[in-house]
Amino acid sequence: MAGGKIKRERPSHKGGAAAASKGFQGGISFHKSKGQHILKNPLLVDSIVQKTGIKSTDVILEIGPGTGNLTKKLLEAGKSVVAVELDPRMVLELQRRFQGTPFSNQLKVIQGDVLKCDLPYFDICVANIPYQISSPLTFKLLSHRPLFRCAVIMFQREFAMRLVAQPGDTLYCRLSVNTQLLARVNHLLKVGRNNFRPPPKVDSSVVRIEPRKPLPPVNFKEWDGLVRICFNRKNKTLGSLFRQKSVLSLLEKNYKTLQALQLTPEGFSDDSEMASCVSALGDTLGDMIMDSEDGNDDDEMELEMGDVDTKTSGFKDKVVGILKQGGFEEKRSSKLSQDDFMHLLSLFNKAGIHFS
Predict the structure, then answer these.
(1) Strand, coil or helix: what is 78?
(2) What is the DSSP string of 171-215?
(3) What is the pLDDT of residues 85-140, one digit of tens each?
(4) Strand (E) positions, 213-344?
(5) In 162, 191, 198, 242, which residue has its Cα 20 to 30 A from 330's Cα atom?
(6) pTM, two decimal places
(7) H helices within 197-270, ranges in order?
(8) Comparing C-alpha atoms, which of 333, 356, 34, 48 is closest to residue 175?
């Protein structure tokens, strides 16, 4: 409900039972194609609010409030709610629902696409969002300054499990690594599809995201460059990945440029530049495709044999030497921890090899 364009639909003249089956509430039809699935289970709404840990002084950002079932509970628990909603019909419904109530002065509704809006200050974020904006929204929130205390977000289940995946898990990917670099992520509860009106095609999960304070001392451009290479084929050994001509060519170009200029990658000049780099970590579209590699030796030999280039052999030896120095040559990205990636990046950087 927070992203995409709103498509006008002709009003239906069918009976109440048919309307209910298609997802009508208060005369409003819900668009499945836009991710509009209203949470209808009041016990589940209460559970989400409880797990959020809202204080009476908190400003709450709600993304995709719909008709306001969760909004009412958030208004009761916190100081105020800023609701971002794309659908003008839902905006009107929210305004009508709370007009003339004690909550009218505590609610501010922003009509627009949350990915394009400038978000105000908030302490807590609560959201039930469409699958297609899950990754960019997660990293937009993590790039927001000042940092919020926590976000409790309903994602489609597979995306949620990627967020919390650990090294060695099937779903462990760039999304897992990048999110966990910036935040502590915990799975709170699984939500069946029948808790929504209309029911979506898949189950959902509620995840709690707490930004790390302070952020880890890493250049995010460098980090992203390394992790993209490592997860290009996460079940291959790093020795195999870093022997590829394309990888060696990129790294050698960076190496020669920085050597000639006697430069090192710069830090961040201000919060806006850091926010931009953090948001870029959310470009994880490729992670949504399940890794089908089986990691067999034949594929690995093909990578190594096909990518030997005498012109870069000296630089290749330097790169492979770094991998051997840290004991990474035979390791696979799918099993590396945050600390492992941090160590690997520091080894490359100390040797003058950079990824941005």
Answers:
(1) coil
(2) T--HHHHHHHHHEEEEEEEEE-GGGEES--SS-EEEEEEEE-SSP
(3) 999 999 999 999 999 999 999 999 999 999 999 999 999 999 988 878 999 999 99
(4) none
(5) 162
(6) 0.81
(7) 220-230, 238-241, 245-261
(8) 333
